[in-house]
Amino acid sequence: MVLQIRQSWVTRLAAFTLIELILVMAILTMAVSVTAPTLSNFFRGRSLDSEMRRLLALTHAGQSRAVSEGLPMDLWIDEANGVFGLEAEPSYETSDSHAVQFKLDNGLQIEAVKQLAVTPAAVLSPGQTMPSVASVPTAKLTHPTLPTIRFLPDGTISLRSASKLRLSGRDGASLWLIESTDKLSYEVRNTDK
Question: In the chain, where do the E strands start and end?
Answer without folding.
Answer: 73-78, 83-88, 100-103, 109-113, 148-151, 164-168, 174-179, 186-189
